[in-house]
Amino acid sequence: MPQLNGGGGDDLGAxxxxxxxxxxxxxxxxxxxNLSAERDLADVKSSLVNESETNQNSSSDSEAxxxxxxxxxxxxxxxxxxxxxxxxxxxxxxFKSPPYPGYPFxxxxxxxSPYLPNGSLSPTARTYLQMKWPLLDHGSLQxxxxxxxxxxxxxxxIVGPFCLEFPxxxxxxxxxxxxxxxxxxxxxxxxxxxxxxxxxxxxxHFTPGNPPPHLQGDVDPKTGIPRPPQHPDISPYYxxxxxxxGQIPHPLGWLVPxxxxxxxxxxxxxxPTALTVNASMQSFLSSRFPHHMVPPHHSLHQTGIPHPxxxxxxxxxxxxxxxxxxxxxxxxxxxKEDEKKKQPHIKKPLNAFMLYxxxxxxxxxxECTLKESAAINQILxxxxxALTREEQAKYYELARKxxxxxxxxxxxxxxxxxxxxxxxxxxxxxxxxxQPGEGNEHREYFPNPCLSLPPITDLSAPKKCRxxxxxxxxxxxxxxxxxxxxxxxxxxxxxSCASPPSSDGSLLDSPPSSPSSVAxxxxxxxxxxxxxxxxxxxxxxxxxxxxxHYPHRHLLAGHPPPPSLVLLxxxxxxxxxxxxxxxxxxHGDVSSSRQPGSSGxxxxxxxxxxxxxxxxxxxNSTAPQPLSLVTKSIE
DNA sequence: CATCCTTTGAAGTCG
DNA sequence: CGACTTCAAAGGATG
Length: 635
Description:
- Helix content is 48%, strand content 1%.
- The protein is mainly α.
- It has 3 domains: 341 residues, no CATH class; 36 residues, no CATH class; 181 residues, no CATH class.
- The strands form 2 sheets. It has a two-stranded antiparallel sheet with strand order 1-2. Strands 3-4 form a two-stranded antiparallel ribbon.
- The N terminus and C terminus are likely disordered.
- The chain binds a DNA duplex through α16, α17, α18 and α19.
- This is Transcription factor 7-like 2 isoform X1.
């Protein structure tokens, strides 16, 4: 480790997190001692990081300096081992396949560092990859084929655990990529970019002989830009232009090498390690920049694929066009001019959670058969908390890279720009101003077990009353529900909690398919209570009143994953702390969780809770809680 | 059709 | 410096 941080070089995550993990440095050593395999990866990773950092330094020293040590490092705490093990044992549910099926790549990414010459990987690293690679374990026929495929030196990286989830949806085939030359596909594991994890590679995707159905059939409704068929898993980070067909819809896809650009060949990933944008990369990037943002000489990439972050006023312009035609024109013209004048809207880089959401949304949708984003997001939020630090670290790193890249791409850009744009344009929704009192109230209760937990669905039930009573009985709705706000009824009323879960909860939380999760709502008179009680423990509770999102602070500080913390705190609360007492500072988050009734049970062993991933729920746990962190007693 | 909802995190503004 | 606000994605729901 030392390198991971490189003295703070790698700034994975949010500062908060970094801070929280700060004192965990020594643990790295420990880890290194104990976790050989991991260590190998870590080493590789760290080395990569260093490289990237080094490179980066050239381009952006200041940033690197100011950034705190990588969260990843911090993540290596003592608990991790246990967590990992637990995770392994418990995988079950949400993420089918390996404990964190999608995450096996976690470490791999670094291996892909462009900076590593082919074959530069240490045997260890390779070994690790193989061991870790989910596909290999699962050994799907396709994956094997892929492996065998001479053309793909190491298809393994291509194969993702996720493939299992969406079989038959292979849109892209590795071969195709290769053959088509559209994308310089890199087959070597080490070529896999760290960000690759976001790409849910599926065997099917790359199965030879699995020609992409129709690469161009799909058109992005919003952008109107044709895009290649997408895998549910694969959330295209950005819309691809027609020319991008065959590209892997990576979240960072826009950066994905196009048309076999030499520079990127060998890189599956756009960011050659984002950390470092070398000269060639620079040129590449620059090519994609909007002229105004980029040094003058730049223009869109030859592919014509705009940077994902750039939202051209196309849509608006179009509308304006029509308007112009219909309406008067001076005004419109001027408007139009303004718009034109207006630079394309450059979006904020996605943060870690957003990246995670992008990646996982499809899965959740598939599992839960939910479509409502609000509900899905709740689930994702829980899952996010359920993730191990390492897993989260992956996303933090991605986010960091994303930010860096964004920074490089749009040197002058500031989030403020978007603020202003919206304000001026008034387009954006005026953020709901929550009534202080109102909002807080909800939030405070929010923590209610019912809500908090997986069944959180309750939480998710902003429309609880609606769901329960239906539109016909709006008179029965609680005020907030009428206002489309969070339902307070269930929050406060415990009894109701139970019921709702079944209704919405089931939808949200329980993956239909998974038997384990499916469980027993009925059977569990006990289970239900259990879950409810446990729920408070759930990680999710974010203090409502504390918009602050720093749940990790404590977590980090206390290593235990978020859930555990919550649990602890809850238990403490249960012990008799008054909510207020618990409230201060760090505990603020938890405060929310305190709810009458929520209590006691909470106890679930924190650790267990922390370890548990939703899926691994105990059979008793109510089915609807797959997502929840509820725990299964691991023992 | 615009906005809400919902999540976390980053970054902005404000006092 | 802390508290608060906006925005990023997403898509159904709502007015």
